[in-house]
Design brief:
single chain, alpha/beta
C-alpha cells in the first residue's frame, strides 16, 4: 500500500507543476547531475577527530551531518579560544580531500547534457549550487564537459553556510537576477529540500542520491522524479 501511495504522490506533484514563465533552473551536483560518491561518514569522522585535537567538545558535534558540522564548529570556535576562520580552513581542507576522492568515481547521470542544452535553447538560465568545494567542482564540470552550460556556479567556498541553509540558492538567484517565483531547484537530498524551502523556491527531487525515498517524501518536495529524462519530457 505504501509503495502505491508513493508513486501517486510523485505523479500528482509533478503533474501540478507548471514551467510557464520559468526563467532559471538551479541544480545540485553530487547525486543530482552525477552519481553520489561522497564518503559522508569518513569525512565526519575525520573532522571530529581533528576538532577533538583542537579542544572541541565533540560530544556536542557527533550527531551533526557533514553539511551542518562546519557552521556549528565555527560558531563554537571562540568559546574554546579558536578562530572561526581557522576552523573553517581546517574542515575545508578535509572536505577538499573527500571531494577529490569522489571526483575519481563520479559518473554523469543519463540525459544531463540533453536537459542543459534544452534549457539553453529555450533561453532558461542555469545555475549550480553545491556543497562541494570550488576546486573539485570546477574539475568535475570540466571532466564532464558541463562548464559552459551553466550561467553561475556556487560552491562551498562561496558561502558561509552550506545547504540546508538557503544562502547558496539566494546567491545564485541574485547573480542570475531572477526572482524566486520564476525559478526551480533540482536536487537529491533533504538538505536540498530544506534549503529550497528556506528561500521559498520550488524544489524537484531526483531519486537515487544521498537520502531514501520515504524520508524525501516526508519533507514534501514539490516534485519527485526517477531520472532527469522525466524532467526533460515535462520541459518539452
Amino acid at each position: 500500500m505504501l509503495k502505491k501511495r508513493q508513486r501517486f504522490v510523485k505523479f500528482q506533484t509533478m503533474k501540478k507543476l507548471s514551467f510557464k514563465g520559468v526563467e532559471a533552473i538551479l541544480f545540485d551536483f553530487g547525486g543530482t547531475l552525477v552519481d553520489f560518491q561522497w564518503n559522508r561518514e569518513g569525512a565526519v569522522q575525520e573532522t571530529l577527530e581533528m576538532l577533538s585535537k583542537l579542544g572541541f567538545p565533540t560530544d556536542r558535534l557527533k550527531h551533526e551531518r557533514y553539511s551542518t558540522l562546519m557552521a556549528k564548529a565555527m560558531r563554537m570556535a571562540s568559546k574554546i579560544g579558536r578562530s572561526s576562520d581557522e576552523v573553517r580552513e581546517k574542515i575545508g581542507n578535509i572536505y577538499d580531500r573527500f571531494d577529490e576522492d569522489a571526483l575519481t568515481r563520479w559518473t554523469l547521470r543519463p540525459q544531463v547534457k540533453d536537459l542543459l542544452n534544452l534549457l539553453k535553447t529555450k533561453g532558461i538560465k542555469t545555475g549550480l549550487v553545491s556543497n562541494i568545494g570550488k576546486r573539485a567542482l570546477e574539475k568535475g564540470l570540466q571532466k564532464m564537459n558541463l562548464y559552459q552550460l551553466f550561467n553561475v556556479t556556487v560552491s562551498r567556498n562561496d558561502v558561509l553556510n552550506l545547504k540546508p541553509s538557503g544562502e547558496g540558492l539566494n546567491l545564485a538567484l541574485n547573480q542570475l537576477q531572477v526572482m524566486k517565483d520564476k525559478a526551480f531547484y533540482v536536487g537529491d537530498t533533504l538538505d536540498d529540500i530544506h534549503a529550497a524551502k528556506a528561500v521559498g523556491l520550488k524544489v524537484i527531487i531526483i531519486l537515487g542520491g544521498e537520502n531514501a525515498k520515504r524520508a524525501l517524501l516526508s519533507a514534501r518536495p514539490d516534485g519527485m522524479i526517477q531520472n532527469l529524462g522525466e524532467l526533460l519530457t515535462y520541459l518539452r
